[in-house]
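Today's session is about reading a structure prediction critically. Students often jump straight to the picture, but the first step is always the sequence itself: look for stretches that repeat, for charged clusters, for runs of hydrophobic residues. Only then move on to the predicted structure, which in these notes is written as discrete structure tokens rather than atom positions. Here is the chain we will use throughout the hour.
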Amino acid sequence: MNQFMKVKIVMNYQQIIKKLKSQANPKNVAGMARFGINPKNTLGISIYVLRDLAKQINRTFKGSTLKGRHSLAIKLWNSKIHEARILASMVDVPELVGAKQMDLWVGDFDSWDVCDQVTSNLFDKTPYAYKKVFEWVKDEREFVRRAAFALIAALAWQDKDAHDKDFKPFFPLIKKYSTDDRNFVKKAVNWALRNIGKKRPGLKKEAIEIAKKLEQTGDRTARWIAKDALRELNNK
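Below is the predicted structure for this chain, in token form.
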């Protein structure tokens, strides 16, 4: 059993940070860096350990005020610790997350894994998710633009109440930004296109058609996005 799961009491912010730091593993940090994860303020803790801790925190707050959990998430984020920020996205309360908080957090993104965890754990469950896609995609900062497409991917995969018409406006964004050759952007654009095609059956044909059009362009990045997407969509 993970040591986090043995703790029966409600842990406060200081106790959680102490627990996280006790799990620091410099060797893991070096390994994560090889996969493009920013090593700054990173402890090297497994995502599975963080999920276990988040479950414990959410259980201990069950039945109590959600504002307490939200306040804890804000404190964890403000610690600037890589893993604490991912944990914050796992324990925060979507209905208490405002547009201002989303903008502040996305501006702090400095690693693809934090970006992807926050967008899929938290941001996609807020009422501002669809609106933020169109705002963030215009931002030139690499991880802010990635957040827009990571959010599309998360919504396509997880928003069970959405309709196909909610995703059609994302296709022009995919086409427009398919030429952004920055690594963390192009991979997110590809991810968004693939998830729409896979999880929205009514849009699969259109997703494939868009990919084929991108494949015929003279842009190297767009062709890469297209070929990778088609390889997966044509096998489904």
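Discussion point for the tutorial: Residues 142-158 form the longest helix (17 residues).
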